[in-house]
Structure formats: structure tokens, C-alpha cells
Amino acid sequence: MTTSLPTIDQITQAVRRIVAEVLAVPAPQLGTDTDLREVEGADSIKVLRLIARIEREYDVQLEDEDVFGVSTIAEIAGVLQKALKL
User: Fold this and answer.
1) Membrane-spanning regions, if any (predicted)?
2) Domain segments of the chain: what residues?
């Protein structure tokens, strides 16, 4: 049985939800181009927590070099989409 991969829109919405929960920010305040480094209350520990949560929810291991080079929800979604296709 083949399972279909989530679309980039579904991935982006899931990443937005996770970011909102981890950073305690209302999801509607987070655009896909929101720089997470500029969100009030965001720090490196919280960003690592959200990456770990994404990895758990999707059962993937994101490459450090990919994760540390991104700063927006859209970029994180792109890295996740790439990992899911492998």
C-alpha cells in the first residue's frame, strides 16, 4: 500500500502550527516568510525544540546543515518536504 506524501501547503500549515505552539504565538501572526529569529520569545533552544518536534511528528531526521541555514516557516517546510521525499 502506498501512502501519499503531504503537499507543501499541508507541510507549511503543520510547521506554522508547531511554531505557534512552541513559541507561544498565535498562528495567524505567523506568515510563511516570518523570520523566526525576529519572533518575540524565540531563542535558539526553542528553535531546536520546534525542529525536534517536527522530526518526531513526521518521523524524519532533518540534516543539520539544512536546518541551520533556514529562518522562515516556508524554508523549514521546504527542508521537511525534501526529507520526506528521500
Assistant:
1) none
2) 8-85
Rounded to whole angstroms, the Cα distance separating 78 from 9 reads: 10
Report CA torsion sign: 41, 47, 52, 55. Answer: positive
User: What residues contact residue 26 under an 8 Å CB cut-off, 6+ apart?
Assistant: 20
pLDDT in tens, the chain (86 residues): 456 889 999 999 999 999 999 999 999 999 999 999 899 888 889 989 999 999 999 999 999 899 988 999 999 999 999 999 86
How much is the pTM?
0.89
Dihedral sign for Cα atoms in the order 73, 78, 81, 86: negative
